[in-house]
Amino acid sequence: MERQDRQGPVLECGRHRLDLAAPRVMGILNVTPDSFSDGGHFIDPARALDRAHAMVEEGADLIDVGGESTRPGSEPVPLDEERGRIMPVLEALCPALPVPVSVDTSKPEVMRAAAEVGVGLLNDVNGLRADGALEAAAETGLPVCLMHMLGTPRTMQEDPRYRNVTQEILDFLLQRVAACEAAGLPRRRLLLDPGFGFGKRSAHNFQLLRELDQFVATGLPVLVGMSRKGMVGQATNKPPQERLHGSVAAAVMAATLGARIIRVHDVAATREAMDFVAAVLGGKAAG
Ligand code: PT1
Predict the structure, then answer these.
(1) Fewer CB atoms inside 10 A, N or C side of the chain?
(2) Is the pTM value of this prediction over 0.85?
(3) 269 CA distance to ligand 1 centroid (A)?
């Protein structure tokens, strides 16, 4: 049996099904005024929809909408503000797009509201640790990406330390999986994400990527986000807007090691790279 058979290759995302036999491209749609690399130009729902359609044209398999920046140093956004930014955009996108929309939120109220307007996946950088988030996510019936973060976005890059970064993050994520199962959220609805750049130095991020096969070996689908991040800049010595080639290299490495969803700003380039990986690996995907 191919090892990928353990992964539950199809994700039920509301009215959409996402086949994870090949690596999928998740396009980033920020609806924040303070986005670190694309300036947050997409708060107007009509513009957000245009941008989402463009990413689908470029080959995005799903669109991730976030209203709270979580890059290092960001301040938390109050519930009403996050909801006010995100909901009009989700209401425009969900019925209109041919691909599932995910919502990048840690707030249970936003998860519930997003599920009601047709979101297909919950993406929580906080791993459902907020009060009420486990219950809210379980009740939506949607799949959930559980990500690891050390601390909070505001403080996470202040001297992060690990004994063994891969082992600690794997332990954390498997504890969150157990908490989900206890709350009635079954494994078949879960994805894991080591959380590149969330309370990690570049050396930690590089080790996590080298050892990504350990996350893949859990049998749960792995999602990664490295697009334009500091780890790419560290390796290539480029500012955020010039990190395309490094980011594509990171995506290729992750997919080769068995990651199933790659969260990116630059959809067209990543799509081509993933098509190449899929052509080479075919049904013999890593993992
Ligand atoms: C991610 C992710 C995310 N990243 C998931 N959701 C961000 N599931 C937002 C830097 O080091 O990796 N996985 N949602 C963006 N956050 C960051 C973090 C942006 C670090 C930049 C950096 O530059």
Answers:
(1) N
(2) yes
(3) 19
